[in-house]
Write a structure and sequence with these properties.
The chain is of the alpha+beta class. It is built from four helices and five strands, in the order H-E-E-E-H-H-E-E-H. It has helices at 2-15, 52-59, 62-108, 127-144, and strands at 20-24, 30-33, 43-46, 114-116, 122-124.
């Protein structure tokens, strides 16, 4: 029974690919294969149609399959690049949001806030500059902290 099952499985596996041959060896054991050994009286069981998907794949040339593969790979790379860019943008927005929140906290704390001039000198903000900086910080929080 096991031998028959194994033979049937081999037969089914080779049937999907084309011609199948059967022959008996010197000890009387039956063999199945897609190519018979030389010098053996093998009987051809006949060609069997390939599955529809395999048949359509065989009809397509290697160049067409290669072009499809390259197209899928390019699309995959584009999607990966887009996802990486979106992730980097999200990280940059989160950092800008945190910076704006910290700056607003410092401005609203009541302590003197300084900035550096073009010459590198430390200059403290007056009341008007502080209000403008506060409004700017709130606008940045609104823009980046969505």
């Amino acid at each position: 029974m096991r031998g028959l099952t194994a033979a049937a499985l081999i037969l089914l596996a080779t049937v999907a690919w084309g011609d199948v041959y059967t022959w008996k060896d010197a000890s009387g054991k039956t063999h199945y294969s897609d190519t018979p050994p030389p010098g053996v009286d093998a009987r051809r069981l006949g060609p069997v149609a390939s599955p529809p998907a395999a048949a359509s794949e065989q009809r397509r040339s290697l160049a067409e399959r290669e072009a499809d593969f390259r197209k899928r790979r390019a699309e995959s790379e584009e999607q990966r690049a887009k996802a990486d860019k979106e992730k980097a943008d999200a990280e940059q927005r989160a950092k800008a949001c945190e910076d704006a929140k910290r700056y607003l906290t410092a401005l609203e704390s009541g302590q003197r806030v300084a900035r550096y001039s073009e010459s590198g000198e430390r200059v403290f903000l007056d009341d008007n500059e502080r209000e403008a900086a506060t409004a700017d910080a709130r606008k940045r929080i609104h823009d980046f902290c969505k």
